[in-house]
Amino acid sequence: MNASELTTISAEELKPVHLPGAIIPAPPEDSDTSIMRIEIGPAHPAMHGIVRLTTYLDGEQIVGMVPEIGYLHRGFEKESENSKWIQVIPYTDRLNYVSPVLNNIGYSMAVEKLFGVEIPRRAQFARVIMGEISRITDHLTCLAACAMEVGGFTFFLWFIKAREYLYELLEQVTGGRVTINWTRFGGNSTDFPDGFLKEVEVRLEKVREVIEEGDQLVTRNKIFIDRMKNIGVLSKEKAISYGFTGPLLRACGVPYDIRRADPHLVYDELDFEIPIGEVGDSYDRFLVRMEEMRQSISIIEQAIDKIPYGPVMTRERYLGYPDKKEVYGSIEGLIDHFKMVMEGHHPPAGEVYQPIEGGNGELGFYLVSDGSGDPVKCRVRPPCFNYVQAMPELALGHYVADIIAIFGSINMIGGELDR
Amino acid sequence: MKFKVKKVDRSEGLKEALYIPGIAVGLKHTMRHFFRNIVGKKDVVTIQYPEEERPVSQRWRGRHRLTRRDDGFLKCVACYMCETVCPAKCIHIEAGEHPDFSVEKYPVRFDIDELRCVFCGLCVEACPKQAIRMDTGVIGMAYHSRESFNFTRDLLRDAYTPNEKTKYTDADLPKPPDQQSALPNSRGIPAP
Amino acid sequence: MQLVLEFLALPFVQDVLKILFILLLFAMPLGTFMTLMERKWSAAVQDRIGPNRANIGSYRGRGLLHIAADALKSIFKEDLIPKGADKFLYTIAPFFSFMSAVAVFAIIPIAGPIGDFKFQVTDVEPGLLFIFAITSLGVYGAVLAGASSNSKFALFGGTRASAQMISYEVFLGLSLMGLFMVYGSTQVSAIVEGQGEHWFGLIPKWGVFTQPLGFVVFFTALIAETKRAPFDAPEGESEIVAGYFVEYSGMRWSSFMLAEYIAIVGVAALITTLFFGGYQVPWLYHWESAPQWLVTLLQFGKFASFTFIFCWFQIQIRWTVPKFRFDQTMALGWKKLLPVALLNTVVTAIIIVALA
Amino acid sequence: MPEESSASTESTEASEPIETSVVINLVQQEYPAAMLTTHRHRGDETIALKREFIQPVCRLLRDHPDCRFEMFVDLTAVDYLLIETDLQQTERFEVVYHLRSLSKDHRIRLKCPVPEDDCQIPSIHMLWHAVNWYERECYDMYGIHFEGHPNLTRILMYEQFQGHPLRKDYPVDKQQPLLELNDVEERYHYGRFE
Amino acid sequence: MREYLPILIMILVGIGLAGVFTAISILFGPKLSTETKQTPFESGFLTQGTEGQRYDVKFFMTALVFLVFDVEVVFLYPWAVQIRELHWPGLIAALFFIGVLVLGLVYDWKKGALEWE
Question: Which residue of B has its CA nearest to D7?
Fold first, then answer.
């Protein structure tokens, strides 16, 4: 990206009136009508996470909005600080529960960075394949929900059907559909079963068909275009200042993709395009996600061609459990295993921040270790947090029906937002 | 580094402005699904759950089971590894000495609170004796009371008996006095 | 026996019998059936199976029993009136919706006349105009429900419904102008009679062929008038939850729903009558020796099957297209449909005058 | 929409990642009094600052043509109570900022020690939009006051929550008192927003 | 007027059916009303409802435009039915009338009366 493309946000734009939580509109002086306050959420059909938007309306027009979050707060960080390092992995499944693999990968990569180890190449490719499958499920869910709320219920169920094909793939590898608990420090817990990669190709073809069908059903329909176009526009500069990442930032026209900007795993060996939008409205976000799924399919196909044979777990004794054969056969193996289980992992003291491109944007894990068996700090940087924060700005001046179009397109995931 | 960028196509032409072509294309797809499904249920993906069941994968993590040795006794040696590694702290083990010296230790109590369990499978990985498995393929566990989710050792024990001539029968396993005292409470702490 | 026949010959008794027939044996069963079919058909579109669980013993009847189950459920639901609601208005609001939905059937001929006897409840002179007047009373149902519920979501739904329905009233009337010109009458029986003719003895002179643009506008306006998708902003279940009837429960709620489904049947019947020849079976005039009872039966069958097809078509539309936003609904009407309807009127008039 | 990707594809040259020590040097140059330590662990550049300087340093990092940190990535705090580590920290809390520059393609981590008895730090909400909620969350979780924040209220926990849950001295299984319905009702009717 | 009687009967039947439904609901529905149940829906929050709320419905102009158009359209019906008899003179008159109507529409459009503010 060109340095001259971006201008620093001006002081004018940072005026506190736009700061969420500070918008309390005054009733218009020249009319005898009042501003109506209406609560959208938490018990509202369009709030498919749990969030409360206190909306102030003048007629049907939004003049103010105060988002309130925290309804799904489960204390991820506190719980992690009181667990062993490995016990956090099942918990990360519950962050962004529509793309659990990516959360697993992010956390494991952060711990591996703390250890300073590199994982085997097959494991890296496996993570790319599974991660991209997971990204597709994430986008499928998001787009489906978004279209459903503007009335495309058929689109919703078709996409959920496609997601089901992919969940069954995840299940074949990990043994779970949503709560997968798949990665470990230094590799993955399981390798692909026989014939899995062929199955992936078959299913991706089915998914591609569904995507094309859905594309024709909805994206070129004028009614849908009317609902999405120029709704919830955010300028490039503001989006960056709000900390937008992922599809939302790309929809604003900034080609910022962590898979390219901070290359991790083997993404730099794979060829894909970064879809970007023009305006940064809901329609752009929808199209960017649509295109990203196609790119993900192509990434998976390339990765399947390139995946090498080999182990999926490092041989390092301090990272993974020893081979089962060793555990059952030798006393050393058994002792190692016992020590691993009882004492847990001991990453060297230090702090790392590991960002990966999650389904929704930059998913960062900030870990602090003091060399003991528990994390001192296990912080998730959730992408949704910034999006919901920008909700008032996105919605201001639009109609009450546009809230759902905007909210659907930012893909807020409650588990990730509130942790 | 170099990367490729692709602008999404958000152009809008006369075809979109007329509304009807877009709706017609949509109708084409929905009608195709409609007639295929009305005539022969060709595309239907839903299954009739209680009658039909979805085949789960080999690796599916379902309800736990405690495996047995060839002679029919539990493989578990009550080493507390699964209890230690469990993130949900849902396993509760009490070890006991078996009268037979070849058996070393065995679990007097082995309770899993399946309501607390997060089905992560770490206990299976941690077990050094392959004594606990999650390959029962049980998808749904639905009961009417919380107590029903507390699976004691005898409920978890594998129903399958590999050898006909077993050295130990079920009756040989020392049992807790009653079901109530065998159960931990919901926080995984044994009842007083 | 004589007494019974005489009694049956009384015009008043005949009217009541016709009303009971068309309502209780045609419109309401079909409307009720549609509540199930909406779910079954949407399931087929979406690759699902749809409801099939309600059963008596082991008999499931392919989901047909769900109708009975739903009715029973509504009957035994608690009947709630929200705090602060205007009880009287709250109670009478469903009446208006229901009344306007059933009133349409008064003018619809279901088969050709035999002598003096018409298979039509009444054949009033202003015909459709009078019926539009009656049906537009339906707006009161939505407005009263919205205003009396003491709920903000309902209030939004009510105001949206009122603006949408009165606006589309205009286009509804305007789109039929061309039809009135072509058939030279506003009386329904005359319009249907006119559609019995054929061009070159081959193409039936149906309204859809004489007035294609009028058909599109009329169909659109009619769907909007009944607040069906894609014009269901007043009910907008995703933003204002259920719109004007969000506070209703039990059978009160059911009357709104049933009214909606009867309105679907009404729309389908109107479309059939005005644009698809009503009961007129095309090319039947070739068969001159057909017995009267068979002709009547065929006519009724044609009418019923076309009505059914249009019920299905409305449902298919609903599960295909996304929803309009409320202001877009209004803009579509005033800025697109209104000019198109005016244009249609002018062009039709010029052609007719030039040909006459 | 199927389309030829070759037609709409363009290549963009990302600027080469500069040596990140430029950032450290710059801060060293401009605010020599502010720097406590710097270190580079596993490739993450870190600057520890005195908290009084956080605002000017952040402004400098955002606006200086060599840094251009347009994106505010993350803000959190770490509680080092009873933790022995060689991360060279001196006080109980440390507020941690992560910044990202898109145009210069680099990241930086800033850390400010905050003592327990004077638990406050200047707010930087005027520099990036994103800061607002992150500071609220940090206040909610650790009780660190951000001086000058326009709306420093709880965000994830409810108003009546006692204590700050992520402090190490907050027991993990502590139970909060149940709220009376009246409190809840009052809040909804005459809530903090009106 | 004889033929209007069935319509009246039909309306009464419709109202009667809806009335029967409501009566059934009142008769058979359980009565377990509580304070919370009776509160109007507002996403799970307590609400004051719409009493005393005056909110700007913003379709005053639309209503006026509707009134104008509906009345004008009614004037066109007699002409439409009699178009063959009135022939060219009638058509020219009607076109003039419609022209004025269109002018009004264009004026409204330009003035922004059709915008849903």
Answer: B6
Inspect the structure and tell me whether chains B and E have 3 or more CB pairs less than 8 Å apart.
no
User: Is-contact E49 C150, C-beta < 8 A?
Assistant: yes
Model confidence, pTM: 0.86
Q: CA-CA distance, C119 to B141, in Å (whole number)?
A: 60
The pLDDT value recorded for residue A136 is 92
D11 touches chain B (CB under 8 A): yes
State the pLDDT at residue C102: 85
- The answer for C 48-67 residues in CB contact with A (under 8 A) is 48
* Predicted ipTM of the assembly: 0.84
- Asked if A121 and A190 touch (Cβ cutoff 8 Å), the reply is no
- Is C316 in CB contact (< 8 Å) with chain B? yes
A397 interfaces chain C, CB cutoff of 8 Å: no
For D13, the enclosing helix (H) or strand (E) is strand D9-13
The DSSP code for A278 is S
D chain contacts of residue B3, beta-carbon cutoff 8 Å: 11-12, 14
CA A35 vs CA A64, A397, C152: distances in Å: 9, 14, 12
Contacts of A291 in chain B (CB under 8 A): 6, 8
Single-letter amino acid, residue C25: L
Is the pLDDT score of E3 beyond 50?
Answer: yes
pLDDT digits (tens, 9 = 90+) for B110-162: 888 888 888 888 888 888 878 888 877 777 777 777 777 777 776 777 665 55
Chain C nearest C-alpha distance from E30 (Å) = 5
* Ordered structural domains, chain E, with CATH: 2-28+55-111 (1.20.58.1610)
**C145 contact residues in E (CB cutoff 8 A):** none
Label each residue of A149-208 as H, E or C: HCCCHHHHHHHHHHHHHHHHHHHHHHCCCCCCCCEECCEECCCCCCCHHHHHHHHHHHHH
C85–E31 C-beta distance less than 8 A = no
- The first and second tokens of residue C89, run together, are 């208005």
Q: Which of D76, D71, D51 is nearest to D130 (CA)?
A: D71
Q: Peptide bond before D171: cis, by omega within 30 degrees of 0? A: no
Residue pLDDT, tens place only, A259-309: 888 888 888 888 888 888 888 888 889 999 999 999 999 999 999 888 888
Beta-carbon contacts of residue A386 (< 8 Å; ≥ 6 apart): A242, A243, A244, A245, A361, D130, D133
Question: Residues 324-343, chain A: which have Cβ within 8 Å of B?
Answer: 324, 327-328, 334, 337-338, 341-342
Torsion sign, CA atoms E60, E66, E72, E75: negative
Can you give the pLDDT at residue D87? 60
Q: Which of C297, C161, C175, C324 is nearest to C238 (CA)?
A: C324
Range 154-183 of A in CB contact (< 8 A) with C: 154, 157-158, 161
Measured between beta carbons, the chain B residues lying within 8 angstroms of A221 are 16, 22-23, 25-26
Q: Which of B1, B3, B6 minimises the CB distance to D8?
A: B6
d(CA A124, CA C107): 72
D164, D166, D168, D174: CA torsion to nearest 10: 70
Contact (CB<8Å) A14/D126: yes
Q: Which segment of A221-230, A402-411, C111-120 scores lowest on mean pLDDT?
A: C111-120
In tens, the pLDDT along C102-112 reads 888 888 888 77
Most C CBs within 10 A among A35, A55, A143, A157, hence the mutation to make, goes to: A157
Instruction: Report the side by side order of strands in the sheet with A273-276.
Output: A273-276, B2-7, D9-13
Q: How many CB atoms lie within 10 A of CB E66?
A: 18
Residue position matching structure tokens 């579109």 = C45
- Using a CB–CB cutoff of 8 Å, tell me whether C58 touches chain B: no
